[in-house]
Structures are given as structure tokens and as C-alpha cells.
Fold:
Amino acid sequence: MTEANAYLALCTHTHLFPGARCRLQGLPRPAAFAAAPEPIEVHLRFSHGTATAAELHPDSPTGPALTVAAYTTAAGTPIDDSTWTVKGIAQKEDGVELTIGTPNRA
Structure:
């Protein structure tokens, strides 16, 4: 995962969990993206300031998914890389809100 062309996503909490929300910023056409999402690279920024790379895969076999790179929280807790279902993609003001579903377990 690279972040050079990634869209910023501001997350409302310090980590992901079912029901967590992250708002994608800077999409050129948020309404069109929400209606027909495309694969994109994402730069997740959590509420405590920690950030990590991620990728949105709207057409995965099990439905939309967010693959997240490993990172360390501000408190020093290591978080392994993970993939989460995305149970909602909706336009919110000038961004697009992702509602996180369940983690995909291998």
C-alpha cells in the first residue's frame, strides 16, 4: 500500500470496530463515488492522531472491504494489518462516510 495518491479518511475513534465511521475527504465527486464506489488508496487518521495506509475494495467477493496496514496506536499498542467489511458508503456533506462492518477473519 502506498499513500502518494491516497485520500484522507478521518476516523471518529482511536481504532476500527463494527459501527466505526471514517469520513473520506477530497474526493472530486462525493455523490457519484458514494453511488458507485471505485477502488482507492486511503490514508486513515484516527482520533488520537495516529495514521496508517489502507485500501478500499468496493467489489470484493464478500462486498465492500477496507484493507488496513499494521500500525501502532498513540498509546503504543501494536495493531496488526486487517481487512474489514464496509457496511455503508454514503455521501455526508462534502465527503463520503464509510461505516465499518465486521473484521474478515482468515
Observations:
- The chain has a mean pLDDT of 92.
- The two ends are 19 Å apart (CA to CA).
- The longest strand covers residues 82-92.
